[in-house]
């Protein structure tokens, strides 16, 4: 590893590894508990491009030596080194064992089944998918319902891939198996757990 690469890898982590990671964890868990609620993960960590602040914070908080990461498109040395140093997680070449998968923008939902879906006995062995989008508002309105939502909740993310709604319906039908999905734009993200019903508004 070069000196420049070493500097890139070791910089940009939590300023306060304990309090910072705890604060980020609370926000992320809140987003899982309240599907479709946007949270701000800016200011916690700083990672090399193309990892956005929200995605970098998600990985720095949740990935570890027992929760490896798969990057759908990016394999830049700086990115791989940052993830490895800041999280201790392996960055896999094969998606079959990923705990977290950072998808490419407009990722084809037909390919998401290659990521672990868990089993009926061990549903927690599924991968959490992280999908970068253009923005979390400004797109077509979608209606969410299910656990964590009292009645319904509206979201309007911009930059969802074709087949997104059908893919989420098929994923929900697999319960207790299936993927939890995070939509991330810049420093903000929202979570769509496998139990959330996503429909056109």
UniProtKB/TrEMBL annotation:
Superkingdom classification of source: Bacteria
UniProt keyword annotation of Transferase present: yes
Class of this enzyme: transferase
Molecular function per GO: alpha-D-ribose 1-methylphosphonate 5-triphosphate synthase activity
EC number per UniProt: 2.7.8.37
UniProt source species: Aureimonas phyllosphaerae
One GO term of the biological process aspect: organic phosphonate metabolic process
Designated name of the protein: Alpha-D-ribose 1-methylphosphonate 5-triphosphate synthase subunit PhnH
A family per Pfam: PhnH
Keywords, comma-separated and alphabetical: Transferase
């Amino acid at each position: 590893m070069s000196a420049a690469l070493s500097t890139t890898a070791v910089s940009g982590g939590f300023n306060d590894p304990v309090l910072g990671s705890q604060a980020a964890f609370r926000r992320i868990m809140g987003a899982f508990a309240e599907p479709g609620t946007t949270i701000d993960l800016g200011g916690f960590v700083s990672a090399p491009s193309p990892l956005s602040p929200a995605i970098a914070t998600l990985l720095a908080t949740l990935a570890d030596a027992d929760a490896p990461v798969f990057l759908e498109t990016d394999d830049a040395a700086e990115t791989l080194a940052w993830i490895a140093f800041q999280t201790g997680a392996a960055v896999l070449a094969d998606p079959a064992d990923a705990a977290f998968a950072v998808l490419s923008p407009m990722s084809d939902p037909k390919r998401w089944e290659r990521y672990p879906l868990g089993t009926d006995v061990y549903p927690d062995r599924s991968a959490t998918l992280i999908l970068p989008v253009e923005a979390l508002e400004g797109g077509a309105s979608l209606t969410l319902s299910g656990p964590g939502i009292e009645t319904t909740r509206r979201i309007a993310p911009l930059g969802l891939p074709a087949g997104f709604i059908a893919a989420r319906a098929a994923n929900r039908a697999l319960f207790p198996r299936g993927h939890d999905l995070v939509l991330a734009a810049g420093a903000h993200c929202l979570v769509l757990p496998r139990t959330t019903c996503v429909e056109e508004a």
